[in-house]
């Protein structure tokens, strides 16, 4: 385990803004995790776990602590290939991934085995270990419905824990890992239970339209999802963004009535179960005057030409310019609709009051 100093973080994030990490370490084995955390504690430094940096806005000051970069790989579907968990019941439909594994490789592995459950999550950038953190979701699927357990180093108790899905507090784009237990757990492995021979999920309208006769193969659904995402520049490397910059607001009945009173004509919505009515943030943003391809007059920031929900670093942007545009969007949506948009990316290294 080698601790580096003054490491640039911008190039380790998909948005490509922000300063340096004071200290930085690559974690390649589980044994590195408690050792790195103990080093930070001994030096009285805060710790941040970095995956693929695809849901991250780093401040221009950088981070004055130790960044743990997750690099523990491996995709396992049987005990033969599993080094640290001989007692586990891995078998048909059960897949486990090291936290440092590319998430899309995990999806591809499930689809290649003919196991349904995560095919619609194809093409989401980042690493497997981050997927439980914000309960990633897309095209009608959420990773929470496939996760069985999360293995992590619990910094509060200084011990390894295996959290069953029910103990992870999964909700829309949230879990205990980004809510009440933020920064408490360093996730090293995630287990999934998929459905061998199961049907692909094509409930989402854009997918249903592509398969009007129903029952497509998992591989065809994966390709369709990748194709749809490519058309919206929502694959890694297409534009410098953190994907959706705002969460889709979930409105109570009262908030919905308030919105309906301000809008003439139909309002797009998604079902959000008992949680309420989910309204596409991209629609609110466009209606509030920020269209796809919007370019700020200064600062090198704008909106993706393909998706109004993605703030993009067009040209050597700084984090302050990203925050400035995000705040202007929030104000415009609030003024027009009375709805406060919540940012989705994690914000690192900002002083109080500087964040979105
Ligand atoms: C083009 C684009 C499209 C996207 N599309 C989607 C989408 O469709 N749906 C969706 O849900 N998200 C989407 N995202 C957001 C992002 O890809 C996901 O949130 C992803 O899971 C983040 O993974 P990461 O490894 O890059 O995490 P990072 O950005 O590195 O970290 C995100 C958070 O997770 C924490 N974290 C990361 N790894 C660990 C770990 N091992 N243990 C503990 N904490 C950890 C970090 O500390 C941080 O708080 C998109 C992003 C981009 C750039």
Query: What is the average of the pLDDT values?
Result: 94
Shape: globular
Relative helix content: 10-25%
Series of H and E elements: EEHEEEEEHEEEEEEEHHEHEEHEEHE
Largest sheet: 5 strands, antiparallel
At the first level of CATH, the class of the largest domain is: Alpha Beta
* Structural domains: how many: 3
Second-tier CATH architecture of the largest domain: 2-Layer Sandwich
Q: Which distinct ligands sit in these coordinates?
A: flavin-adenine dinucleotide
Order of adjacent strands in the largest pleated sheet: 6-7-13-11-12
Short description:
The protein has seven helices and 20 strands. It has 356 residues and is an alpha+beta fold.
Task: Characterize the structure shown.
With 356 residues, the protein is an alpha+beta fold. It has three domains: 3-70, Uridine Diphospho-n-acetylenolpyruvylglucosamine Reductase, domain 2 (2-Layer Sandwich), CATH 3.30.43; 75-231, Uridine Diphospho-n-acetylenolpyruvylglucosamine Reductase, domain 3 (2-Layer Sandwich), CATH 3.30.465.10; 281-348, Alpha-Beta Complex (Uridine Diphospho-n-acetylenolpyruvylglucosamine Reductase, domain 1). It is 22% helix and 23% strand. The protein contains seven helices and 20 strands. The strands form seven sheets. It has a five-stranded antiparallel beta sheet with strand order 6-7-13-11-12, with helices on one face. It binds flavin-adenine dinucleotide (FAD). Flavin-adenine dinucleotide binds next to strand 3, strand 9 and strand 13.
Layout of helices and strands:
Blueprint: E1 3-8, E2 20-27, H1 32-42, E3 47-50, E4 56-58, E5 63-70, E6 75-76, E7 94-98, H2 103-112, E8 115-116, E9 137-138, E10 141-142, E11 147-154, E12 159-164, E13 185-193, E14 195-196, H3 205-210, H4 218-231, E15 250-251, H5 253-262, E16 270-271, E17 277-278, H6 281-287, E18 301-303, E19 311-313, H7 319-337, E20 346-348
Parallel strand pairs: 2-5, 3-5, 4-20
Antiparallel strand pairs: 1-2, 6-7, 7-13, 8-14, 9-10, 11-12, 11-13, 15-17, 16-17, 18-19
